[in-house]
Amino acid sequence: MKRTLIGTALAGVVVLGLLSAQDPPIAQRIQRVENGLWEAKFGPQGSQVLQAQASLAGRMKLYNVPGVSIAVIQDNKIQWAKAYGLLRAGSESPVTDGSLFEAASTSKLITAVLALHFVEQGKLALDEDVNKFLRSWKVSENEFTRVKKVTLRMLLTHQAGLPATNYDMDPNAGYPTLVQVLKGELPAKNKAAVVESVPGAKWQYSNIAYDVIQLLLEDSLGKPFGQIARETVFDPLGMNSSTFAYPLPPELASREAMPHDEKGIAGRPGMHLTALAHGGLMTTPSDLARFTLALMMAFQGKSGGWLSSATARRLFHKELDLDPRMFGFPIAEGLGVMLIDHGPMFSFLHPGSNLPGTTCWLEGCPESGQGVIIMTNGAGGELLAIEIRAAIAHEYQWPIGPSFVP
Questions:
Q1: What is the model's pTM?
Q2: Residues 53-67: what's their mean pLDDT?
Q3: Whole-angstrom Cα distance, residue 251 to residue 264?
């Protein structure tokens, strides 16, 4: 996740006008969204200003984003989903609402929900030393862990003191196992999951912290992470186009959206095959909308037993305030999710971005029953997603988001 760009994008979220008296036909709403993107401009001191309406097609061309897929939640239901463009630039394969995109760091929200589900069942603990539950590998002891032990809560909130690291590997030495990744051992060439500061002392975004959670789940349950996700989340919610298995199985591979760089040039997906929990989800906006809606309903106490209201509220409980200089406005960290306070309401979100160029934006507001998921197959999709989100917020007059007056 690129925090600076996402912070700039978040600062441009808009809410305009008053709630409309009548709900116009959905097709008209979609058309207004498609032709009502608010072009992002940069003002003094890097502040973002949204001005001048533009079309989705025009902005896709400007940002070199070949494909976009959107799902909108309104009144506690998925109101519409629509896709645009191509799976791969230069091809004739269109993006559909069944096309699979990389969820990137939005995968962490799935991982967080899995962890909290098994905390609720008593199979994991939030505030105990994770080494009590790990068998295949342990967090190594050093001067920092002697002061305080790493806990699941710290892993979920990026406070475990673990490094931020890229996931390089030696292509001539086979593919690393998850344990080799955590050890930083060849053929893996990433930093090892070694604590670099006193756990709980500071916030430092860490992908590898979530891969520790993956092993924690696998060791505790005796099952592969992908199977745990399927049995606990995907199957119960009807997320039939979601998987942590990669390469995709044949029945899904023909629907895969290829990543594209800033120039719109297609590249090979950079999916990790063993370290999955930090960014390995392949899915559709409609499936993520089902997941988002289920979290919102659980928060409202209407989950039907899939996730308890207490666990949903634990997920959305503010654990710490993040430095507002990172994003340009106040934002907090929950247990694996970002939170924005809107006075009487709050929204939860988790963006994601994978190299060489895929993006995801997931957002929901439990109190208002609204949300949006936007997935793209282009590196320019981060800003594009914010412009789409702004158009949707304007059309539906969402009472969430930092205020903006054009």
A1: 0.91
A2: 95
A3: 27
